[in-house]
Design goal:
Strand order of the largest sheet: 3-2-4-1-10-9-11-15
Low-confidence stretches: none
Radius of gyration: 25 Å
Bound molecules: fructose -6-phosphate
Structural class: alpha/beta
Shape: globular
Oligomer: single chain
Number of helices: 19
Distance between the termini: 10 Å
Mean pLDDT: 94
Length: 605
């Protein structure tokens, strides 16, 4: 979380830094700030809240200079305030930082007793105070930065700017992503390549432990042992980094609407020449695996939860699921025939990445399903499968979820074929169903007007309950998460059969209960649980297909979905889960794309 940008330019850099920060705002929006060097002098501007507040300040108090660093913050140590906003400055140094300095308390105590005066509650300020102290001791900026980095523990990305140094930015990557952009006589630095897309398509990704000295002429990169090293320069597809709302009111609305196209593209990408074949990376070997370990966070975790049903049903492969932040702390038992599969939109989620690093030495293969193919998780996997969803800017994940499901479904079918649990005929039939997903998702999106009306009722609620069985249970969890994310309504999800073991006590006439129940093998059972809710005056919204709605009898609210094969139902039913959250949030007037307290990329533990 937090976004970092740096520019050594030929022209004024503040407007470019603001533009880059706009592209990084998805990483946090508690505060923002910029520091520049102008005629040798270091100066900075900072503002609380969204970037627009910083832009306003800079209209009245411009920040000239051709070298600068910028930051958009997601608060960890110290609440959102100007004092806690980055860049932080001490003496002749300014610093922007993403991540957590774990030993900051000890450093702060040491620096305070040496006379340093702290102006913020942040861990970041220890970095800048340390660097300033080293400069005062007579070190050069490079020596001061290097000595500072040696003292820091934790996971972070950091950039230093020094007074009197017009042609110098020093940066480091340890645990949090950072990349360098190459221009013509200009150099750039960003938390991701997207931030730099308007400036350059030539990118060098720093590796774990690297630090770099940037000047307009290029970058000197050093590894964790301080040995000068070369990291390859890659060209990114700038088209893939375009971030506009294309006429939609919100990024989330645009990203939901994009789903049929995205799913079609993902399917096309993994389709073989024959209509009933798949083209997946060589070496993907499910045949010899004795267990599949799936690890992710949030929405990506719910995608894994759906996929568990697929892998077990179609491939007979036992699946163990874990929330990434819990995984490595419970000392999981790992074996050489295990496969580990990590799912992440950003590919940078700190807990998921840490889990990947934890299992890698112990399992047969590490596979990842990611949206950002250049991300840390993708690069550290043995096999990375991109979902090809394009940039997802809305903080609530939508198109990435359905595309993750699509790719996981493809993998489950491949696993079934490799393990001989799916006959070629059954494989071809399931693949045929999967190809129909984009069309069904488009039909589900057509229900938007009706969902908008239903959401008006939901927007009055204090709590909402979601129910589902089988693969609709993770969908219920996803629906509840989306609603909490962006409407701030408390929502919970239960496996419908679990209701009577406690949560049924919550049911009264004021509690809306949303039931996901396509007419599948579990329909009767889910409907019985729904009746138990209605018998206690719960306000049910049943989401089902024509047959399900016809058989369910009288229900207070209903939403008709297209009739779809069981296999693909979770992908299609994700759409009403998303639209319900979106329209409920609109009715409540919340900030849909940038909900409070959240950030798109969670790069701290
Ligand atoms: C919720 C949401 C989050 C993410 C989670 C994992 O709408 O978007 O729960 O799914 O933070 O992020 P990634 O997929 O980037 O690892």
């Amino acid at each position: 979380m937090c976004g970092i940008i740096g520019i050594l330019g030929k022209h004024e850099v503040s407007p470019q830094i603001l533009d880059g920060l706009k592209r990084l705002e998805y990483r946090g929006y508690d505060s923002a700030g910029i520091a520049t060097i102008n005629s040798g002098k270091l100066d900075l501007r900072r503002a609380v809240g969204k970037l627009i507040n910083l832009s306003d300040i800079m209209v009245h108090a411009p920040l000239p200079g051709r070298s600068g660093i910028g930051h958009t913050r997601w608060a960890t140590h110290g609440g959102p305030s100007v004092a806690n906003a980055h860049p932080h400055r001490a003496g002749r140094v300014a610093v922007v930082h993403n991540g957590i300095i774990e030993n900051f308390r000890a450093l702060r105590a040491e620096l305070t007793s040496a006379g340093a005066e702290f102006g913020s509650e942040t861990d970041t300020e220890t970095i800048v105070q340390l660097a300033s102290q080293y400069l005062e001791q007579g070190m050069t900026p490079v020596e001061a930065a290097r000595s500072t980095l040696k003292r820091l523990e934790g996971a972070f990305a950091v950039a230093f700017l020094f007074e009197g140094e017009e042609d110098l930015i020093i940066c480091a990557r340890r645990g949090s992503p950072l990349c360098i952009g190459h221009g013509a006589g200009e150099m750039y630095l960003g938390s991701d390549a997207m931030a730099l897309a308007e400036m350059t398509d030539r990118i060098t990704y720093l590796e774990e432990g690297d630090w770099a000295v940037l000047s307009r002429g290029g970058a000197l990169i050093f590894d964790a042992e301080d040995k000068q090293t070369n990291r390859p320069m890659t060209r990114i597809n700038v088209e893939n980094t375009r971030v506009d709302k294309s006429g939609h009111k919100h990024f989330m609305a645009k990203e939901m609407a994009e789903q049929p196209g995205v799913l079609q593209a993902a399917m096309g990408y993994y389709s073989g020449r024959e209509h009933d074949s798949l083209e997946l990376p060589q070496g993907l070997d499910f045949a010899r695996a004795d267990r599949l370990i799936m690890v992710a966070c949030g929405t990506a975790f719910y995608a894994c939860q759906v996929a568990k049903y697929w892998f077990e049903k179609y491939a007979g492969l036992p699946v163990e699921l874990d929330i990434a932040s819990e995984f490595r702390y419970r000392e999981p038992v790992l074996g050489p025939a295990n496969l580990a599969l990590f799912v992440s939109q950003s590919g940078e989620t700190a807990d998921t990445l840490a889990a990947l690093r934890h299992v890698k030495p112990h399992v047969a293969q590490v596979i990842s399903v990611v949206n950002v193919p250049t991300s840390s998780i993708a690069r550290e996997s043995d096999i990375a499968l991109p979902i090809h969803a394009g940039p997802e800017i809305g903080v609530a994940s939508t198109k990435a979820f359905t595309a993750q499901l699509q790719v996981l479904a493809i993998l489950a079918l491949r696993a079934g074929l490799q393990r001989g649990t799916l006959s070629p005929k059954a494989f071809a039939e399931r693949l045929f169903e999967l190809r129909a997903v984009p069309g069904f998702v488009a039909q589900a999106l057509d229900r938007e007007e009706e969902i908008k009306r239903l959401s008006e009722v939901l927007s009055q609620a204090r709590d909402v309950l979601f129910l589902g069985r089988g693969m609709m249970y993770p969908l219920a969890l996803e629906g509840a998460l989306k609603l909490k994310d962006i409407s701030y309504i408390h929502a919970e999800a239960y496996a419908a059969g679990e209701l009577k073991h406690g949560p049924i006590a919550l049911i009264d006439k004021d509690l809306p209960v949303i039931v996901f129940a396509p007419h599948d093998g579990l329909f009767e059972k889910t409907v019985s649980n729904m009746q138990e809710v209605m018998a206690r005056q719960g306000k049910v919204l049943l989401i089902s297909d024509a047959k399900g709605l016809a058989e369910a009898g009288e229900v207070p609210f209903r939403l008709a979905m297209p009739t779809v094969p069981d296999f693909i139902a979770p992908i299609v039913y994700a759409v009403p889960a998303q639209l319900i959250a979106y329209h409920t949030a609109l009715h409540r007037g919340t900030d849909v794309d940038q909900p409070r307290n959240l950030a798109k990329s969670v790069t701290v533990e």
